[in-house]
């Protein structure tokens, strides 16, 4: 049976293959390390912004799988560099002969599978993030006033810090604050007729105002921040409510966070693609080098040509042989029939 994708490797191509693999392996180790850092950075960002993501949003799966895939790639690069360098010396190569087989299996099945899974998660992340941020930010805005409710005490502080740090206001814009009650009932005067009228005029009994929290204010604005009566064109002289970006953050937090996290995920996806390409080249090169050296007894500068290959026999023949062997093994052995007794020989009469 002929090997799969055979490649004849004379002496000089074998040496160049080993030298090139040493360089590619170190490049894979560096890229795997950078991918590891990118995965960890995205995981930390998602942990910090977890309050503003829906609990059912599985966005943390991408950096977690990418961490495992990049760790395997880093290990593959380090071991591949050592094996390719040792292959140039017949005295150093024998200990590595038993390492290359498990490395190729782990790098192909484990590392390759994890990289493909991580790339798929990176492609599906934008839609998942969009839905998760939409629901999570809506819940955060609704919990803003609940500073004394157990489990929600930090909601106001976290949302204020988010708006100040990322220069955003509301979910999709500053007007999102107009549709929710963000002032706690504790700070409302029940004797104030304006407060009573606003609560009674709302079907759900909420205190709604056309104002925003202080964290929506843009400190670069040339005038003091305007937080209330933003929809009244006559309430503030020389202020045009049609241009609130001069006084408040113009973008909503959904757009800002989505762009921020998608940028990190895009960078990680590109790093994963480069890692996958380098790991494929390194594993293929190590397999050809391994099979070529096995034909020479582990001596790279042995005389004659060597043949490297991916599999020792055709895949079709290998599968067929395995299937037939499995069928023979499962087939019950026929019961052996008892040997037939020979009829007794009649004795000759004595003369």
UniProtKB/TrEMBL annotation:
One of its GO terms (molecular function) is protein homodimerization activity. Signal peptide: none annotated. GO terms for biological process: camera-type eye photoreceptor cell differentiation; detection of light stimulus involved in visual perception; photoreceptor cell outer segment organization; protein heterooligomerization; protein homooligomerization; protein localization to photoreceptor outer segment; regulation of gene expression; retina vasculature development in camera-type eye. GO terms for cellular component: photoreceptor inner segment; photoreceptor outer segment membrane. InterPro entries: Peripherin/rom-1, Peripherin/rom-1_CS, Peripherin_LEL, Tetraspanin/Peripherin, Tetraspanin_EC2_sf. Pfam families: Tetraspanin. Keywords: Membrane, Sensory transduction, Transmembrane, Transmembrane helix, Vision. This is Retinal outer segment membrane protein 1. It comes from Monodon monoceros (Narwhal). The lineage of its organism: Eukaryota, Metazoa, Chordata, Craniata, Vertebrata. The gene is ROM1.
């Amino acid at each position: 049976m002929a090997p799969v994708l055979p490649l004849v490797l004379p002496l000089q191509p074998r040496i160049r293959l080993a030298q090139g693999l040493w360089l590619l392996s170190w490049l894979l180790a560096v890229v795997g390390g950078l991918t590891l850092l990118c995965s960890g950075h995205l995981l930390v960002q998602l942990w910090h912004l977890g309050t503003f993501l829906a609990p059912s949003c599985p966005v943390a799966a991408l950096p977690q799988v990418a961490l495992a895939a990049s760790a395997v790639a880093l290990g593959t690069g380090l071991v591949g560099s050592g094996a390719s360098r040792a292959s140039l010396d017949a005295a150093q190569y024998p200990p590595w002969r038993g390492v290359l087989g498990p490395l190729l299996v782990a790098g192909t099945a484990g590392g390759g599978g994890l990289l493909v899974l991580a790339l798929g998660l990176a492609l599906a992340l934008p839609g998942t993030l969009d839905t998760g941020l939409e629901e999570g930010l809506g819940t955060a805005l609704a919990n803003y006033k609940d500073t004394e409710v157990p489990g929600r005490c930090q909601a106001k502080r976290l949302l204020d810090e988010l708006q100040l740090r990322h220069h955003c206001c509301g979910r999709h814009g500053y007007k999102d604050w107009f549709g929710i009650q963000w002032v706690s009932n504790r700070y409302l005067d029940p004797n104030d007729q304006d407060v009573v009228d606003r609560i009674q005029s709302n079907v759900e009994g909420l205190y709604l105002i056309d104002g925003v929290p202080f964290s929506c204010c843009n400190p670069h604005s040339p005038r003091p921040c305007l937080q209330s009566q933003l929809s009244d064109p006559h309430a503030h002289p020389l202020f045009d409510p049609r241009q609130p970006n001069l006084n408040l953050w113009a973008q909503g937090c959904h757009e800002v966070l989505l762009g921020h996290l998608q940028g990190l995920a895009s960078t990680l996806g590109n790093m994963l693609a480069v890692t996958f390409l380098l790991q494929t080249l390194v594993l293929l090169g190590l397999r050809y080098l391994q099979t070529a050296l096995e034909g020479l007894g582990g001596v790279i500068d042995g005389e004659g040509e060597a043949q490297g290959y991916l599999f020792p026999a055709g895949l079709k023949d290998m599968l067929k042989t395995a299937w037939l062997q499995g069928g023979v093994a499962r087939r019950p052995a026929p019961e052996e029939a008892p040997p037939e007794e020979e009829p007794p020989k009649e004795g000759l009469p004595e003369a």
